[in-house]
Design goal:
six-stranded parallel sheet, 2 domains, nine-stranded mixed sheet, single chain, binds adenosine-5'-diphosphate, 20% strand, 37% helix, Rossmann fold, binds alpha-D-glucopyranose, alpha/beta
Length: 483
Amino acid sequence: MRILFVAPECLPFSKTGGLADVVGALPRVLAARGHEATVFLPRYRRTQPGTVVLPRLVIPLGPQLHPVAIQQGPTLGGVRVLLVDYPLYFDRDGLYVDGGTDYPDNAERFTLLCRAALEFVKQEAVPDLIHCHDWQSALVPVLLKTLYADEPRLGRVPTVFTVHNLGYQGFFLPDVLDRIGLPGRLFSVDALEFYGRVNFLKGGLVFADFVTTVSKGYAEEIQTPEYGHGLDGVIRARRATVTGIVNGVDYTEWNPEADKFLAANYSVEKLDAKLVCKKDLLQQFKLPADDLTTPVIGMVSRFATQKGFDLIAEVAGTLMEDELKIVALGTGEPHYEELFRQLAQRFPQKMAVRVAYDNTLAHKIEGGSDIFLMPSRYEPCGLNQIYSLRYGTVPVVRATGGLDDTIEPFDPSTGQGTGFKFTPYSGTALLDCLRQALDLYHGHPRAWQRLMRNGMHKDFSWNHSAAEYEQLYERVVKSAQRK
Ligand code: ADP
Ligand code: GLC
């Protein structure tokens, strides 16, 4: 099958979060399974330039014409990568945000991405299916069912739209439709209108042939008012064409046996060297590294409300009375950066933070920590807890979305399970849960080792999830042919 992925980020070309890991991995696995996969992305400032395959492609956005170039990046394990090169829109420091504020022309920037993808395939070769990711590519299905509906082949190409995060929807004032050249009739409750504004993500939910999200649990949750971000009704209306497929992880990148960022490599059979990683981690974070029996709790995260940091703020004072150390790595909303900086100042022997985006440190945290903490308010899938399993770093998570689906609670009586979970979104619940983990760590070292090994044996490689996508694509293509 010929599958075109349209996405705003993809490793190793660009990344702000787990979406980039997914778009960097899934198409490669599909290619290895015999499909022809192409990924279409923006070329941002920090994306390595490719070679020009089309020097001039004129994209209309309302009254404006935008001449873009299409480049081809290095092939990604059999996957062709196309980059839309338009410095006016994409040659900027950030991908979506500058200093905490969205770029004011994000609607134009990502409509251009969608239209450039469609114009390119119209000229070159029409795929069997287009798979879009998050609000930035949500206009592909909208465009296909409106402006492109009469295109002989392209107008009939089916789409799958994956929601990686319902919390980011792409809201704009109603006049945006004129600016991006979409018909005014789309400003209706059955289409893109959402409480007086235009909502790109809603467009994807309404117009795509099939909607997926990145875990079964989150697919259920987003149909409820609690987790639906106002779109639960829209999603419920499409219930028959909504499903969850859990993300895989790329074990060529995340494997303690071969991880080049770790101070030492280790495996489920030979766990000793994890202590070398722990010492190195403490040194990297300038924490006392003489006593390696103290448990280290690690965090790697975008600093966003989604991730549950208000709970950490609530319990930090109490938690720091326990025997433990905390290391945190992240960037994002300035008030969370400040929160972690203050905690590190208050407890310099126990807590350290690095406000940065740093892949090497992210690997060192996975390798050197004993516990990985993810108290998310909501979590569509989450990748770090799955990496943690492979690194023998025990996840302590809130039981929501993909965290709930991927982590099984440890039962000391049977020795089964891979981590610890709590459900109520409260500081007390988080504290109780962490203390259960810490009690097991201190009091029952053999059970703790068993727990570590249980996680290390789990297999979340992409093949299984890719097979699920494959079946879905076939179903969607068949049903489009019948129309
Ligand atoms: P989300 O996509 O919501 O941010 P995920 O758990 O799915 O959450 O994925 C986050 C990805 O981004 C992981 O690969 C993680 O290692 C990486 N990451 C997040 N913050 C940082 C950071 N500050 N430095 C390095 N990597 C980070
Ligand atoms: C999102 C979600 C995260 C998920 C990732 C990749 O950013 O917040 O839970 O793992 O996308 O699908």
